[in-house]
């Protein structure tokens, strides 16, 4: 996606087109960052869940 936007940017004839493409590049970067942030939160939650299960097993509790 970003590669295509950068190709379009370099081939754009007018400043208006370049600004529009730049806005789309910014939006795509924000979307990617939000996706990475969500993936990080999901991974952290999964780690916490596994740690809680391991602690429960060590105490002899049933699985949660």
UniProtKB/TrEMBL annotation:
Coiled-coil region list: 33-60
Entry keyword Coiled coil: yes
Alphabetical UniProt keywords: Coiled coil
Name of the protein in its database record: Uncharacterized protein
Organism: Thiorhodococcus minor
């Amino acid at each position: 996606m970003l590669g295509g936007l950068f190709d379009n940017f370099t081939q754009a004839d007018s400043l208006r087109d370049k600004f529009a493409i730049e806005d789309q590049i910014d939006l795509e970067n924000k979307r990617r960052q939000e996706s990475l942030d969500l993936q990080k939160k999901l991974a952290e939650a999964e780690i916490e869940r596994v740690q809680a299960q391991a602690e429960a097993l060590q105490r002899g509790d049933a699985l949660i």
